[in-house]
Amino acid sequence: MATLNLDPAAEYLPYTPDIDIRDQISARQLMRKYKLGPNASMLAAMDLMVTKVEEIREQVNAFEPEYLIIDTPGQMELFAFRGSGSMVVNKLAGERSLVLFTIDSNQARSPSGLVSNLLLSLSTQYRFQRNQYNVLNKSDLLSPDLIDEIISWVEEPQQLEISLQAEGLEAELNLRIIQIIEAMGSTSTPIPVSSLNRSGLDRLHAVLEQALTGGEKPQ
Amino acid sequence: MATLNLDPAAEYLPYTPDIDIRDQISARQLMRKYKLGPNASMLAAMDLMVTKVEEIREQVNAFEPEYLIIDTPGQMELFAFRGSGSMVVNKLAGERSLVLFTIDSNQARSPSGLVSNLLLSLSTQYRFQRNQYNVLNKSDLLSPDLIDEIISWVEEPQQLEISLQAEGLEAELNLRIIQIIEAMGSTSTPIPVSSLNRSGLDRLHAVLEQALTGGEKPQ
């Protein structure tokens, strides 16, 4: 397995990536060198990344990894929704690949927060056009009951409707949203994981292996 | 009318705002002062903004504006999807208010690009819980025929289906998306405008006046 960090503006990573875009492009350095503001420096970094794709691919190939995990920039307007982002991902991702979309547990506590994250996830899926799974990250922050409730919001739109009403949200918008969540289908149900207490990681691994190999280990 | 710029990282504005958050908070200065990276500086700026809301509100009130236009940061993960963003907007927006969601014409050229923007728009609407209209910005970049086609993608899902198929996108995902676009309803149809050739501005103004006042001029 190899890990690749694609976020040129990452300040701190809780792991040491095998390959790191920051070795070639650093948003902070671009800022200093060209006297750019924070926004402009990140845009410049994203666009520069496109010119480095071949180099990065060679670095990846040198690892001959069974799996490659790509850690992409969290700012979706800058990465997922600009041409350079999908271009880079399409050049780096193998034939068998999928996207994990991370939903922060704190943002999933309320039905409206969860819904807006699910819509973002769907928008990203549309952008990258790959199999995509939602991960409910830092699930240790939530009680088991709340996790069950969150899952029920996605799997039983009736539950979601009741909870949205309780939140006092507009009825007509809620009805539309419920249709939308229904249309998203079961693959949108988030998989709760915690890197703190390791819960859910086995299940996530099983889901990914199933999705990527149809049950068999990749060669 | 008064204009308020709420983007602390804006490098250049094509207008002079009456009130400017950058007079109080500048992402660039935060970066220098606390040696923050671009990401961290923007997060810090957004959170600081919450502490300045009362001050900004007083500045706004001094103008006694008939209308207040708030220009919000474009980076939605930083603004719309964090608690501080909706907190600030809720404190500043009047009783009669609405959100204009800007879709860049270049991102609406392909059906998949348009769809992912519509999903983002819906996600934002869910976040702010206000009436929301989509604006197709910089429409001068598109031919009149293409503008008609884009409108037809939203208003006639059958058209969207054909165009998505032509783009070679996955059939099952397309079907779901079409259900979702249908569920969004007609208010999601983007209003094409161009500040370059002034087209669409009259119509936008009429739509907004209708939405805010029910036809009457506000007091």
UniProtKB/TrEMBL annotation, chains A, B:
Asked if the record carries the keyword GTP-binding, the reply is yes
Q: Name one Pfam family in it.
A: ATP_bind_1
Q: In the UniProt record, does the keyword GTP-binding occur? A: yes
Gene3D superfamilies assigned to the protein according to its UniProt record, in alphabetical order = P-loop containing nucleotide triphosphate hydrolases
Keywords per UniProt? GTP-binding, Hydrolase, Nucleotide-binding
Sorted alphabetically, which InterPro entries does this protein's record hold? Gpn, P-loop_NTPase
MF (Gene Ontology) = GTP binding; GTPase activity
What family does the entry list? Belongs to the GPN-loop GTPase family.
Protein's UniProt name = GTPase
